[in-house]
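Re: the request from the purification team.
They wanted to know what the chain is likely to look like in 3D before they choose a buffer screen. I agreed to run a prediction and write the result into the notebook, where they can find it.
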Amino acid sequence: MNNDLIRLLPDSVANQIAAGEVIQRPSSVIKELVENAVDAGATAITINIKDAGRTLIQVVDNGCGMSPTDARMAFERHATSKISKADDLYRLHTMGFRGEALPSIAAVAQIDMRTMREGDTVGTRLLISESKFEGQEPVSCVPGTNLSVKNIFFHQPARRKFLKKDSVELGHILREFERLALVNTDVDFTLIHNDVTLHQFMRGSFKQRIGALFGKNIESQIAGISTETSIVKLSGFVGMPRFAKKRGYNQFFFVNGRNMRHPLFHRAVIQCYEQLVQPDSQPSYFINFEVEPSTIDVNIHPQKHEIKFEHEQAISQILVAAIRETLGKTQAAGALDFEADVAPDIPLFNPEADMPVPGDDAESDFNPFRASSDNEMHAPAAYARAPKAAPVRDWDALYANFSRERSGAFEEPLPSGDEAADALFVADTPPAQQTAAACFQLQGGYIVSPSHSGIMVVSQHRAHVRIMYDRYMAQLADGPVPSQQLIFSENFELAPSVSAILESASATIASAGFSVSRAGDNKWSLDSVPASLSSGKAMEALYAILEDVEADVLVDASAFRSPVALAMARSAAISASHVLTPAEMESIIADLFRCAEPSFTPDGLAIMTVISHDDLAARMQ
């Protein structure tokens, strides 16, 4: 009787287990295939996907290609050309090294690969389905590799079921593509989804690639950092504090050409912005680290996102110093936008034009210290202006107070009692506050009103956000928000990733009162806006919706209402510097207390505070 229980798993089962760690969704496939293409020396990579990668992921590159033997060996587990011994793990100059990516992909999908080396007369075609080799044959193709991954998870219904909507998976693909494109600026990239080109740009500088991915406007919102020490060389860009966002910010770390996540370095960056941005906002950053490969370990995460540094504390301090130096310069001098047209309108010099010249009367006996009546007959034409009020000539009266004794400055009686209070109130209080018996406005955007327990101080902007939020929520619950057609449509341009999200969620956006239509590649036209918003406020609200709302929420009508109502309310609400009339202050207070939750904004910020009678009494002791 054989009582042995431990057995060796077949390669197909081992590959599927590895695929659970390496291949989580279509974006993981794109990451592995593009990194292989970069390792193969490709200078042009085209990514073609169908149905957000469910049906097809095709990566075409012009790299070195593979021989027939290498093509077959590449899909064997732990087969790699990147390393040959354990010490090579600490001298890595390539993205891949484990030999797990291709066999893991082949374990969960159907593979059709065509590849040929430069100089060969014929290439190789390889067919694999769920780790099962189906055939290999010569084929005519161009140098490089063309690898198609079809029907991912087609025999794993549980994995395929848990894939999100196409718009969500496309969002993950776009995020992964951004990381790959930013770290490989010397490669031409093209991304096509359902026969629509989402990205296409040529190789260039790091800043040009950032602008190509996220829009030209971001180039004027970032400042460069650069420093070099014996343990690390830092370069890249950090966002200026005034452009920090609550959502939609872009944060990227790269080390030796590899994308990474590093919590310690992220905290170091945020530390530099603590006193410069709002607590709920985050800056954008794009930072490259160049270190000796022997001082880092990239083999600690299945997807190689996390990297261990030997000198991470020292590098963190260097990072803080470099960012603070850059922020100090940009905060002091400001950012120069060379694309902005702010030059004054200076007329061209015309040598033939008649120019006025001083006449002979310029040499007059005009005396600026003489009385104005005496100068009228002597003043030249150049001084001829409208008559002015006569100056004060009683010099003794003008300087009378300067000759008084200092002790006499306090001899005049001051008003006392109610007269003094009335005088101060009339002198120092704005007219709008003098007429308001119930409440008045403080500088800084606060409404002060008496209450039964003391004095209530209300933030007028936050109160109006709560009021508008409740109104928009009621409108969205009743059906589509009423909209008004614009006489002249407003054109705007979005980053390709945001443009793809807007296209998939245009129907849901329309339910909020926004009607948009395509006007070109990544260009859109705003045709109608919510009736309660002006066109300027509507454009601001639309940008806020696209930045603040997740892609999966935009296509889910039930989850869509609250974040969109909040984005619209923030855009429609009055500012903290807006001057209110007494009637407007009373209206805001009344509308606020009709809300279901008048004490806090929808995102949890306090709207009001009450200073009790006991607090006032304690302060007066």
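For the purification team: The longest helix spans residues 312-333.
Please add any questions underneath this entry.
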